[in-house]
């Protein structure tokens, strides 16, 4: 209170002295001051109020600074501000003027009218810009701000399929596309409508499938992988998987369970040699038992698997074979399955009918039994099965527009790359009705599979055209 009283009295004295210097009258009325041409009191009052407020603020800051002079910041960021060089005092310096008392400013008022504040502001701004470039983080050179470096030596790729192929062939090189893959190639965002559904993982789904694409290449099945087996032939494998598909249907298991069992059988037969043919069925039923424990919520009991083999193998034999398979696969069951990719590609296809999706699953199971297609990656077989189902059951679009840029982007396969696999699957589907091993055909002839295998298109003109395409 005492300080405020002293400040008010000092301001009254300064106003009285200023009026005496300029020639104003303390008792002049408001109307007389408005009628005056020069209006010295109003002009001086505006400047004095601004400068007087600044003086009071500075005194208050000095008081606060003296009170908190021993207080230190909670966190030491070790940021060192670049010090701006002190500007020389001059007539045109705005910083010098604002530090004078109000009485001194009154005497230098004509000088203020000739000053150019914009020039002073530009000078200070230029100094700040120059000094900001040398700001550092103290003793941490790793945190020094650096200008972004634009690399111009990257190779431009104009197709998502070519980009994926180039990354595989040259993993150490950097490639980029000109603007945005989705914009340039007219690729739709198939996850846009699922952004509010947390179970669809729209933020991570593309990264997950990129990981699956890389993972399937870590577990390849060699061409003619049964060459190291002296007692097991490709025909025996086909008979085993045909019987296994029937058991899978009788137990009402998930489709992932069947495909995982097929994957484990092929990987085990590739990793081992000299498997006796009398134990081949034991390998198959054990793989289905392991896959059911991995995929099913309520897997069948081990006694059920003993029963379907007509007690050919005992419970202990199945458990011993389970250990051997785990050791051969090094306890790694993470190889992606064709059905995983088929669901993703079906979503990329857009408005796909139930019959086309069921036909794609039918083609997948036919391809799993065929020995010649074991060398293909699961994603490639899934893409070819989907493409064939769209081609066979299509009645609206032309054949050239079936494999859209969206499908090519999300599957990473072009239409030409899928044609050899499509031809092989079309051959299998066209003769499935008259084949000796008919478990897949019989399974998909039921109502819960929409009678897919009995459709006329499965042995029609389009299927024949695809099977015999050069």
UniProtKB/TrEMBL annotation:
Domain Cyclin-like positions: 242-327, 340-427
GO terms of biological process kind: cell division; mitotic cell cycle phase transition
Keyword Cell membrane: no
Region (Disordered): 1-42
Domain Cyclin C-terminal: start-end pairs: 336-458
InterPro entries membership: Cyclin (IPR039361), Cyclin-like_dom (IPR013763), Cyclin-like_sf (IPR036915), Cyclin_A/B-like (IPR046965), Cyclin_C-dom (IPR004367), Cyclin_N (IPR006671), Cyclins_cyclin-box (IPR048258)
PROSITE patterns for the chain: CYCLINS
Record's keyword terms, sorted: Cell cycle, Cell division, Cyclin
Keyword match Cell division: yes
GO CC terms, sorted: nucleus
A GO MF term: cyclin-dependent protein serine/threonine kinase regulator activity
Family, as annotated: Belongs to the cyclin family.
Name listed for the protein in its UniProt record: CLUMA_CG008651, isoform A
Gene source species: Clunio marinus
Lineage: Eukaryota, Metazoa, Ecdysozoa, Arthropoda, Hexapoda
Gene from which the chain derives: putative G2
């Amino acid at each position: 209170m005492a300080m405020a009283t002293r400040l008010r009295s000092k301001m009254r004295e300064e106003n009285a002295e200023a009026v005496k210097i300029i020639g104003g009258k303390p008792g002049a009325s408001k109307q007389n001051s408005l009628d005056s041409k020069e209006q010295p009191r109003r002009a001086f009052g505006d400047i004095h109020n601004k400068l007087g407020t600044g003086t009071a603020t500075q005194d208050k800051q000095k008081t606060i600074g003296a009170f908190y002079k021993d207080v230190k910041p909670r966190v030491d960021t070790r940021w060192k501000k670049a010090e701006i060089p002190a500007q020389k005092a001059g007539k045109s310096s705005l910083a010098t003027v604002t530090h004078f008392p109000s009485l001194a400013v009154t005497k230098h008022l004509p000088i203020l009218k000739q000053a150019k504040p914009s020039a002073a502001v530009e000078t200070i701004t230029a100094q700040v810009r120059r000094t900001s470039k040398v700001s550092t983080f103290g003793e941490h050179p790793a945190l020094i701000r650096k200008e972004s470096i634009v690399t111009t030596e990257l190779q431009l790729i104009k197709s998502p399929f070519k980009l994926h192929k180039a990354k595989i062939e040259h993993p150490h090189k950097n490639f980029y596309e000109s603007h945005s893959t989705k914009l340039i190639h007219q690729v739709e965002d198939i996850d846009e409508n699922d952004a509010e559904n947390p179970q669809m993982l729209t933020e991570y789904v593309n990264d997950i499938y990129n990981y699956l694409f890389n993972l399937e290449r870590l577990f390849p099945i060699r061409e003619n992988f049964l060459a190291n087996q002296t007692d097991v032939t490709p025909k025996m494998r086909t008979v085993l998987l045909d019987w296994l598909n029937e058991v899978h249907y009788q137990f009402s298991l998930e489709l992932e369970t069947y495909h995982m069992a097929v994957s484990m059988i092929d990987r085990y037969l590739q990793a081992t040699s000299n498997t006796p043919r009398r134990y081949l069925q034991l390998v198959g039923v054990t793989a289905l038992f392991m896959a059911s424990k991995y995929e099913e919520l309520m897997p069948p009991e081990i006694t059920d698997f003993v029963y379907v083999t007509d007690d050919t193998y005992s419970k202990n034999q199945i458990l011993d074979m389970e250990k051997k398979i785990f050791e051969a696969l090094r306890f790694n069951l993470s190889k992606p399955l064709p059905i995983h990719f088929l669901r993703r590609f079906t979503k990329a296809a857009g408005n796909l009918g139930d019959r086309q999706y069921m036909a794609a699953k039918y083609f997948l199971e036919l391809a799993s039994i065929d020995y010649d297609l074991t060398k293909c990656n699961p994603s490639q077989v899934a893409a070819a099965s989907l493409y064939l189902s769209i081609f066979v059951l299509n009645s609206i679009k032309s054949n050239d527009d079936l494999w859209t840029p969206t499908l090519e982007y999300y599957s990473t396969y072009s239409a030409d790359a899928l044609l050899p696999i499509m031809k092989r699957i079309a051959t299998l589907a066209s003769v499935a009705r008259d084949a000796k091993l008919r478990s897949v055909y019989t399974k998909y002839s039921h109502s819960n599979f929409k009678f897919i295998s009995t459709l006329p298109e499965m042995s029609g003109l389009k299927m024949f055209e695809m099977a015999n395409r050069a």
